[in-house]
Here is the input.
Amino acid sequence: MSALAVIPARGGSQGIPRKNLLEVGGRPLIAWTIAQALAAREQDPELSVAVSTEGAEIAGVAREHGATVIDRPAELAGHTAASEPAVLHAMDVVESGGATPDAVLLLPATSPVRRTDTIARALTLFRGSEVDALVGVVPESPFFWRPPVEEGGSAVPAYDVTARPRRQELRPE
Here is the structure.
């Protein structure tokens, strides 16, 4: 049973230029997700790790950090491009090479904060169940802050401060 981890990484980010290559904690942002996927391969040797990109610089960094590179066509790499078509393209490329993964993981490079065993645990959970899809989520705090709106630029809570429960009083749901 093989699995394919696809890390989509466009080279033409407009919001934060070169975001996938910016140094975070001493290495390029994309390198964190590559390292996590490669670590999962230690527990799941049939896991392939591929970066889908149209960017030559990203491709070089991806290879340097141990990932396979799938050249993404320009029509799947524009500023309005979604990740899903890039994943489908990556699957087509892998399958045209004769491999048919039983699981495909979408690992955004821009979400590198994962526990060290998250990817391996997800694969184990997926393979041990009869589900078609698995999505990783984390609990979200119920306390949100609005952008500054008061005079002087003070942040305003998006809830009634006087009626706010203490964290210890919150119910799991």
